[in-house]
Amino acid sequence: MGIKERWAGFLFREVSITPLIAFRIVIGSLFLFSTLRFLSNGWVKQLYIDPPFHFSYLGFDWVKPLPGYWMYLPFIVMVIASLGIILGAFYRISTSLFFLAFTYVELLDKSYYLNHYYFVSLVSFILIWLPAQAQFSLDAKRHPSIRRNTIPNWPVFLLQFQLGIVYCFAGIAKVNSDWLLEAQPLRMWLQAFRDLPLVGDLLASSWVAFVFSWFSCFYDLTIPFFLSNSKTRNLAYVFVVVFHILTWLLFPIGVFPWVMIFSTLIFFPASFHNKWLNVLKKWVRWTDNTQPGRHSTSRIVIGCISFFLIIQILIPFRYLLYPDNLFWHEEGFRFSWRVMLMEKKGYATFYVEDRISRKSIEITNSDYLSPQQIDQMSRQPDMILQFAHFLGKKYRDTTLHFGSKSVHLSRPRVTADVYVTLNGRPNQHFVSRETDLMQEEYNLKHRKWILPLEN
Amino acid sequence: MKLIKWTIPLCAVLLITACKKKKDENIAFDKGPIMVNMADNYIIPGYADLKTKVTALETAWNDFLGDKTQAKLDVAKQAWINSNIAFQHVKAFDFGPAMTANIAFTFGTFPCDTTQINSNIQTGGYDLNASQNLDASGLDALDFLFYRPDALTRFQTTASACTYVSDIVSKMKSEITAVVNGWGAYRSTFVNGTSNESTSPFALLVNNFCKDFELCKTTKIGFPIGNHTLGIQQPNYLEARRSGIGRILLIENIKASRAIFYGLDLSGNTNGIGFDDYLNALEDKASLSTTIAARFDYMYLTPQSWTETLEELMTSSPGTLENFYAYQQSSVINMKTDMASAFGVLITYQDTDGD
């Protein structure tokens, strides 16, 4: 058999639908929980309604927040859609709506970018195409003809692959000198726990930071393989639970540990999931009827899956197209599963400068940005440029009145003085006032106006 | 499997070498004593002092009302200066009871809105708690009312102007009383709040320390010297412009920031556990501690050598103020990047990227 046939055979091997059904219910519940948590923390208003300015993604500046309290609408849609996913009701519509609403919100402002949000977007997109409503769902109750007990292997494999990608690339990203040879940034972060009774001294000692760094790197690189292997699976899952609960206790990372702990259940076989699904089924008096899965190899499906997989593998490597330090320039940094990798803090002061008199207006960032936005912007080149362009536009062709004096600005220069500290290094000059940021285009090209990282 | 067999020992060897390279330099350190020192030797005495000074102001003012002479007005003015200085020492602690009472704004907003003040006095029926009167009350409003050229005559002839001062003073008195009382219960929350969550008292202390120092730089110097207005000076933005004590208030504000960093007591005589000691206990951060300390020493001493008021300096030697501002600005960088990073304090309530 050639590689093509083996690949087709692997994707279309007949498997039980149970793990997929279990995944639908579990991930739907997580979607619901995290949306409700977002709402109850008041983040919709704080992050999307209050700030007058948002940092859009390149090419997505047409995605704008809804006016005022209408911003709650996508979140209400997410609540209803995640209920639809859990129950398997209007499944394609529910998954599509969830994907659209969630991705819309994420596209509004990159200040709030988190890898696990990107993961949720991807998984909800994948779910649209999977037959996860074909059993134990309201759709299957209404239309018994869609019921299946078996499905081809590719839906389950796609989800396992996506999780594998998250772990492997998180592991690859950790293979760098700061992480492995300096145990940074963990060493800095862990010392903050030295006040804790009993474990404080332990956490603050540098050998523990080294053990954590090396172990987490090894864990990320290998856990998908240990989970895939039936001999090592149970022990591997114990590690998954312990590892993520530990990170949840130590760092303010929200629901992400729970997303990973529950999503990785997709690696378990039908026999495992039947144990808890049967309880549920009994409770709602559901009986499976046996319908043979009918599925034939489809070249379109194979093509689409192969394309998706290749894209997923290539995107995190796009940073190789850029020279200079990845952590410093952050070119090709997002959408690459680089989690908890750096401790980076910046201080950015912006100036709108009259070209004729060379006099300037120092900008108070908090007049336009929320603390979260300032925190992220002060150390990320693309956001520094976006904010500069926003200021340039705001002050273009304006007449300013200062007491009895007035000044007309036609096309002011916008400059920034930025200093950044990375993984405990003393702060270094990041952007100098020599650069007129209005002359720099916002695009995917290498940003030469970022001063180089020394040592 | 063979591959794994060989990788594990290889990793172990690498790990041990990496570990050996780095000695354990973290010295045992507990943040608790910073909080206890701040609370007991600085914040609580600081608020008590402010209350004493505001009470003295109230007494002096009532005294003046009984006998409206220049001498009595001068006593009230001095009491106002003392209150303003005491306020500089506690305005950074804008959390807990102070945030509830909002005294950072109700006491400290400047420049005051003189039009609003005059119209309040003329028409009466004002509510000093209303948001439009935030600029028409507080310490800077008293600067305007006490130091107008014809202040004495106005107080002698306009009863409503006297009432207005009384209202401002009694509002400040009740607010500082609320803060002093609030700290009775808040103290234990504060001294035990050493976690690194963005809402913990330790994080609030660090963040507000940075924020207050930045505000000191921007409002006391940056705005007046024209840094936000294309270099066009804005003397009307000066704090306490009419009394001309802006330079003193600048010195006192920096003195307070410096005291928080060093962990000094309110008198400034005893050096307890502070941010500097914490930095010294962290590996590789002792030089940062020395840098910030030296910067504070410089910033505390420099304005003391100026012989003119800030407004006079703006004309006679604007470069002096511009240079000082630049020095303050570069000091903020050390605090908001290096120090905040070393302390591992978060600034946002949001989730961060997990693993």
How are the SSEs ordered, and which strands pair?
The complex is a heterodimer of chains A (455) and B (355).
Chain A: H1 3-11, E1 14-16, H2 18-40, H3 43-49, H4 72-87, H5 91-108, H6 115-128, H7 138-142, E2 150-152, H8 154-174, H9 177-181, H10 186-191, H11 200-204, H12 206-228, H13 233-250, H14 256-263, H15 270-283, H16 299-314, H17 326-329, E3 344-353, E4 360-362, H18 371-377, H19 381-395, E5 398-402, E6 405-409, E7 413-422, E8 428-431
Antiparallel strand pairs in A: 1-2, 3-4, 3-7, 5-6, 7-8
Helix pairs in contact in A: 2-4, 2-14, 4-5, 5-6, 6-8, 8-12, 8-16, 12-13, 13-14
Chain B: H1 2-21, H2 32-66, H3 70-90, H4 97-101, H5 103-108, H6 114-123, H7 139-147, H8 151-157, H9 159-192, H10 201-222, H11 246-262, H12 275-281, H13 286-301, H14 310-316, H15 318-343
Helix pairs in contact in B: 2-3, 2-9, 3-7, 3-11, 8-9, 10-11, 10-15, 11-13, 12-13, 13-15, 14-15
InterPro entries (chain A): HTTM-like, HTTM_dom, VKG_COase, VKGC_lumenal_dom
GO cellular component, one term (chain A): endomembrane system
Organism (chain A): Fluviicola chungangensis
Q: What do these coordinates show?
A:
The complex is a heterodimer of chains A (455) and B (355). Chain A is an alpha+beta fold. Helix content of chain A is 51%, strand content 9%. Chain A has 19 helices and eight strands. Chain A is globular. The relative contact order of chain A is 0.11. Chain B is an all-alpha fold and 355 residues long. Chain B has a single domain, classed as Up-down Bundle (A middle domain of Talin 1), CATH 1.20.1420. In chain B, 68% of the residues lie in helices and 0% in strands. In chain B, helix 10 runs antiparallel to helix 11 (246-262) and helix 13 packs antiparallel against helix 15. Chain B is globular and about 65 Å long. At the A-B interface, helix 3, helix 10, helix 12, strand 3 and strand 4 of A face helix 1 and helix 15 of B.
